[in-house]
Write a structure and sequence with these properties.
It is a single chain. The chain has 296 residues and is an alpha/beta fold. The protein has three domains: 153 residues, no CATH class; 64 residues, no CATH class; 48 residues, no CATH class. The protein has twelve helices and nine strands. The strands form two sheets. Strands 1, 2, 3, 4, 5, 6 and 9 form a seven-stranded mixed β-sheet that branches. Helix 1 crosses helix 7.
Length: 296
């Protein structure tokens, strides 16, 4: 039985959050992900045999710290067994030793499971880094040549996937190559895909949440999007999607909560006799707001 491993590197809480988004998306839509981006692998896998395994931890021999293989899925190929390693790299900067690290993960997994491995790396940054091979060679001997499959999301044309109705592709359109002028159109096509796929609420929320994290419209673009949605055949179904309003409501609630906390601090400082200038400097409130609190 083979395994799939999604390799993650931990550096900050924000980075971990990005990691978790990619992990959840590919884990939930594993079959759809391979179908959209690696059809040659997809066609060989028996998806009835897919079974998630426990997370894997290995010590990074190059840097001395611990690396985590977040997703390890056991499955079988139609003709033989294989371990599939998928590395999702959500960072915005390249790693010049990544090809060597891929070989390291490959070696560690093979040492443990002793099964064939198909390594796949998924890149989401803009850097032009094309290596998909690691070699160890001398003038007199080629010791090894290690190859792995790659997906450079930023180099994918988002228009090629809007007719697929594939949830993994729909979410990852947010990380593909589009211009700022195309952002509204990208989101409009995404919303159309979302309603046509008719996912259950949990999966719909996952796909929508991933997309919203990486493609953010400003207020003007949101107004333009709403105007264009009204002219779509799917307008009624799109407007029934509650997720956007829920998330915006939560963010607005957080903003209101923070503002109330600042006012409470300012009120206490006024009672202690602090000056309005000092309170404004500490809380970030403007003088008019503090004056109004003082009158209260």
């Amino acid at each position: 039985m083979p395994q799939l491993a999604l390799v993650k590197e931990r550096s900050s809480s924000d980075y971990i959050h990005h990691d978790q988004l990619f992990k959840d998306l590919i884990h939930t839509f594993f079959e759809e992900f391979l179908d959209a981006f690696f059809p040659e692998v997809h066609d060989m896998i028996d998806f009835h045999a897919v079974k998630p395994l426990s997370e894997e931890f290995f010590t990074d021999l190059m840097e001395g710290d611990t690396r985590r293989l977040d997703i390890v899925v056991e499955t079988t190929l139609k003709e033989t067994e294989a371990v599939i390693i998928i590395h999702v790299e959500p960072q915005s900067t390249k790693q010049t030793n990544f090809h060597e690290r891929m070989y390291q993960y490959f070696s560690l997994l093979y040492h443990k499971y002793r099964k064939p491995i198909i390594p796949i790396a998924v890149f989401s940054y803009n850097e032009n880094w094309e290596k998909k091979q690691y070699t160890m060679t001398f003038p007199f001997l080629n010791v090894l040549t290690f190859n792995y499959l790659t997906l450079h999301l930023r180099k994918k044309n988002w228009r090629e996937f809007i007719k697929s109705n594939n949830p993994a592709a729909a979410a990852l359109i947010s990380k593909m190559g589009y211009t700022d002028d195309e952002k509204v159109q990208v989101k409009k096509e995404f919303l159309r895909m979302l309603v046509e796929m008719e996912l259950n609420p949990a999966k719909q929320r996952l796909v929508y949440g991933f997309f919203e994290k990486y493609l953010i419209l400003n207020e003007t673009e949101e107004i333009q999007l709403n105007d264009e949605i009204k002219r779509m055949d799917e307008a009624d179904k799109i407007m029934e999607i509650p997720i956007s309003y829920e998330e915006k409501g939560k963010e607005k609630g957080k903003e209101i909560g923070k503002a109330e906390e600042k006012k409470e601090v300012a009120f206490k400082m006024l009672n202690k006799g602090s000056s309005i200038d000092f309170i404004a400097e500490v809380t970030g409130l403007d003088h008019e707001e503090i004056e109004a609190l003082k009158e209260r």
